[in-house]
């Protein structure tokens, strides 16, 4: 059985929400996105009224990428400007070169430029098209994270799991050791 470490991303490795921060970065750089804010607000209301679900809301939200002429250049610059939001404990853990999985509800295309810097990291995130924002499948959250992990690896044991949210309870329950993360500070996870 293969021992692995698993991390959530937003609020866990990245001190904040990378999707929201990337949107703000794009908004500052490209004013064509500004009118799109009204659509986001309207879709937020629809989600609050349970007319659309979280996956549909996120898919509609991510459509702002259609206004970005060179998404890869934007992402590279975003990570150059936001690398200071990566928690030091994660960088220290990466020195151990243990097989590591980052599983996030954020779109893979946003996290990928960061994750690609580490040879021992496998990234699993919400599958969204970086040119259209359309989500393929389900939002990678809760039980979906386990289903997605099981598609990538079999016969594993999660040695250490790190997250900032009890929404990741299914993964905490699978892990030998669980750690809650708040602004880069670790504490042992307790379900109660």
Strand content: 15-25%
CATH topology description of the largest domain: Rossmann fold
Task: Quickly give the structural class.
Answer: alpha/beta
Report the order of strands and helices: EHHHHHEHEHEHEE
Global shape: globular
Q: How many structural units, i.e. domains?
A: 2
Give the N-to-C terminal Cα separation. Answer: 29 Å
Low-confidence stretches: none
How helix-rich are the residues, as a percent range? 25-40%
State the major sheet: 6 strands, mixed
Total helical elements? 8
Number of strands: 6
What does this structure look like?
The chain has 192 residues and is of the alpha/beta class. It has two domains: 2-16 and 85-188, Rossmann fold (3-Layer(aba) Sandwich), CATH 3.40.50.1000; 20-78, no CATH class. The protein is built from eight helices and six strands; from the N terminus they run βαααααβαβαβαββ. It has a six-stranded mixed β-sheet. It is globular, with a radius of gyration of 17 Å. The mean pLDDT is 94.
């Amino acid at each position: 059985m293969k021992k692995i470490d698993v991390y959530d991303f937003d609020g866990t490795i990245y001190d904040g929400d990378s999707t929201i921060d990337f949107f703000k970065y794009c908004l500052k750089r490209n004013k064509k996105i500004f009118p799109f804010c009204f659509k986001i607000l309207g879709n937020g209301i629809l989600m609050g009224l349970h007319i659309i679900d979280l996956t549909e809301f996120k898919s509609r939200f991510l459509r702002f990428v259609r206004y970005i002429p060179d998404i890869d250049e934007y992402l590279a610059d975003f990570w150059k400007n936001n690398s200071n939001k990566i928690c030091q404990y994660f960088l220290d853990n990466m020195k151990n070169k243990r097989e590591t999985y980052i599983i996030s509800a954020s779109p893979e295309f946003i996290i990928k430029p960061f994750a690609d810097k580490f040879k021992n990291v496998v990234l699993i995130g919400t599958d969204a098209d970086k040119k259209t924002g359309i989500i393929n499948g389900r939002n990678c959250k809760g039980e979906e994270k386990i289903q997605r992990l099981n598609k990538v690896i079999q016969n594993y044991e999660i040695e250490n799991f790190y997250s900032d949210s009890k929404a990741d309870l299914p993964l905490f329950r699978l892990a030998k050791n669980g750690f809650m993360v708040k602004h880069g500070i670790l504490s042992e996870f307790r379900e109660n």
